[in-house]
Specification:
The chain is α+β, with helices and mostly antiparallel strands and 136 residues long. The protein has a single domain, classed as Thiol Ester Dehydrase, Chain A (Roll). It has a six-stranded antiparallel beta sheet with strand order 1-2-4-5-6-3, covered by helices on one side. The longest helix is centred in the middle third of the chain and has 17 residues. The protein starts with a helix and ends in a 7-residue tail after the last strand. The mean pLDDT is 97.
């Protein structure tokens, strides 16, 4: 099973990533790069993107990177730092890089950039490997 096949199956069933408008840009074992455009319904009461949108985008990149070896992996611990505000029509790109690939856990760093190349958020995620395949 290739990373592309695993993530295609995940994305086909991931209604939230579909709602976000996630586009896959690149995949390889332990790595994922995705993109999306911020829409008006993603803005909070202060006129900037709701933090949950950046978190969710990073979480999707994290999921695609840590599951794409067809080893079901679930989030064990996550954190995010918001570095710059994100606005409507910003095109965001998230890049998930594997830091550690263990038998039972994995550690990933996800950087989110806007269309100007400015880093807007930094997410770190630790996953737990369940021992099951994503695609049987």
């Amino acid at each position: 099973m290739t990373p592309e096949q695993v993530v295609a199956k995940m994305l086909a069933e991931d209604r939230f990533s579909q709602w976000l408008g996630i586009e896959l840009l690149a995949l390889k074992e332990g790595y994922a790069k995705i993109s999306m455009v911020v829409r008006p319904e993603m803005i909070n009461g202060l006129g900037i993107v709701h933090g949950g949108i950046c978190f969710s985008m990073a979480d999707s990149a994290f999921a695609f990177a840590c599951n794409n070896r067809n080893q079901e992996s679930v989030a064990l611990d996550t954190s995010i730092n918001f570095l710059k505000p994100v606005m409507v029509n910003d095109r965001l790109t998230a890049e998930a890089i594997e830091i550690h690939n263990g038998r039972k856990t994995g550690l990933y760093q996800i950087s989110i950039y806007n269309q100007k190349g400015q880093q807007v958020a930094l997410f770190k995620g630790t996953c737990f490997r369940t021992g099951k395949p994503v695609v049987a």
